[in-house]
Amino acid sequence: MVDLNVARVAQDPTPWGSRLLGTTAEQSGVRRIRIQLLLTSSIVVTNCFGIAMVVVLVGFVLPGPPLFTIELLTLNFVVFPLYAALAVVIGIVWGTRWCLRTLQWAIDPDRVPDEFEQAATTAVPMHLVIVEAALWLGCLVVMTPLYGHTDRELITKVMLGIGFSAIVVCANSFLAAEFALRPVTARVLDAAVSRRHQGIGVFGRSVLAWILGTGAPVTLSMTVAVLALLERSVTTTRLATCVLTLGAATLVFGMLLMTQALSAALAPIRGVRRALHQVEDGDLEAQVTVYDGTELGELQNGFNRMVRQVRDRDRIQDLFGRHVGHDVAEAAITQDSELGGEECLAAALFVDIIGSTTMTATRPATEVVEILNRFFDLVVDEVEQHGGLLNKFEGDAALAIFGAPVPLRCAESAALACARSIQHRLSTSDSDITAGIGVAAGRVVAGNIGARRRYEFTVIGDAVNEAARLCELAKNDTSRLLASAATVTDADAEEAAHWQLGESVTLRGRIEPTVLARPRTARSLRPSSSQQP
Questions:
Q1: Which sign does the torsion angle of CA 94, 96, 97, 98 carry?
Q2: Is 53 in a helix, a strand, or coil?
């Protein structure tokens, strides 16, 4: 009847709240047949149940003249069954044709219903109820005069039986149609611009369940009691039978209808709860299908909006972390960001590609970018493995900080170990990239530098300048890696064992001389006088 190829909801076996409605992986043709069967069977079952209820109430329960007599033989076994059969057939044909015409848009899986189609689709359950109510009203209009013509005392009895049964059948049909059309409602709600209520609501469903399961049987019991008071001929046995039968109906119907109403209310909540567990497990792609037009549908849609916002915020946070470092991003999110910084002990590592100017002049720009990306991927990998922060990229160079903003047990050891790892990977890789690396440590100021409307996290201090000068000097050194002796001395014994101290030099822009340190694995050659900074 309809095609319900709605968006797939990952790992949800019941996207519409019940296994009877299938899954999103089901073929559209199978789903059309499934929903058509649910609608048709609900109409047939509820009406047959209503017919049986009329027979029981009028024939055996309600007080009054006996129904099964020779005078009423034709009415009981010809007229009433014939009308009931015709009514069921007319209801199925009439309701099905109207549904097919109304839901024609849903045959196309990519079709987005317009406002008229949305309103018409939402009104399908109520329209089916109107069809059934008209047929039951016709039964009341036809059968009451016929039975009353035979015995006037049967009028009240027939009217009560048919009227009560009609109320139960119509209400059950409404709830059943709402259930069967959930996949169609999901497409309507997905296309609707406004998320206003498009149903009787949770309160309305609860009231409806109470009216059918409790209110109607109790009202009928009170009516029987009034008739017993007015008609002295009602025996105690018949009155007891009426009370017991209607009391049992109240218990059974009340439980069934309340269960049906609660199931309709709990299904969306269960879907949201299941999706919440997915989000708790880290799956930010979780979502629920919005198929309820009541306040519960707003809950479903609100959850989807919330997850989208969390997903967007997580994506922004991830991009922010990629730009400034995840530790800096976390600190900026959890703490009050302001200009300025704090003094701390940190180690700086400066790495710069050798011969980048020639490479840029002799190779295509796209190839240069690919080379730089591979190089920086290696550097970032090692820096993060050693607990550092890649603070900034400067063309073909990069500055890494150890000990800020997250303190380390020994920032000097981490920086020196990272430098050795980078140098080893560059020297043993197939790439022809070589780089100078400098490492220094000392007191620095780490914080936000810039203007109030635009600033960045950075580290300012003599150690950073010293690392940059050591990197510049390392480009002309055979080891390609130089550190200050003070940094090696402050490192732990295990890391310091990998280094050997060398000569003392005065770095460009500095007053005090710096004693150099090189890895023990590299041959230490003193640079010539032409290589002095």
A1: positive
A2: helix
Measured between its terminal Cα atoms, the distance across the chain in Å is 84
Distance of alpha carbon 89 from alpha carbon 86, whole angstroms: 5
- The secondary structure of residue 9, as a DSSP letter, is -
| Confidence (pLDDT) at 531 | 32
* Whether the bond into 405 is cis, omega within 30 of 0: yes
The reported pLDDT for the residue numbered 503 is 93
How much is the pLDDT for 4?
41
Measured at the alpha carbon of residue 193, what is the angle toward residues 130 and 181, in degrees to the nearest 5? Answer: 35
- What's the alpha-carbon Rg for the chain, to the nearest Å? 41
Q: Which two tokens stand for residue 145?
A: 């005069």
Listing DSSP states for 75-126 in one string gives IIIIIHHHHHHHHHHHHHHHHHHHHHHHTGGGGSTTPPP-HHHHHHHHTHHH
The Cα-based distances of 479 to 141, 462, 465 in angstroms read 106, 23, 20
Taken in order 109, 112, 116, 120, is the CA torsion positive or negative?
Answer: positive
Mean pLDDT is lowest, of 217-221, 389-393, 486-490, for 217-221
φ, ψ for residue 438, nearest 5 deg: -130, 140
Return the residue matching tokens 């997850």.
307
Please say if the pLDDT value at position 3 is more than 60.
no
Query: Cα torsion for 28, 33, 38, 43, to the nearest 10°?
Result: 130
For the chain, give the mean pLDDT. 80
Between residues 454 and 184, which one has the greater pLDDT?
184
Contact at 8 Å (CB) between 396 and 372? yes
- Rounded to whole angstroms, the Cα distance separating 480 from 17 reads 65
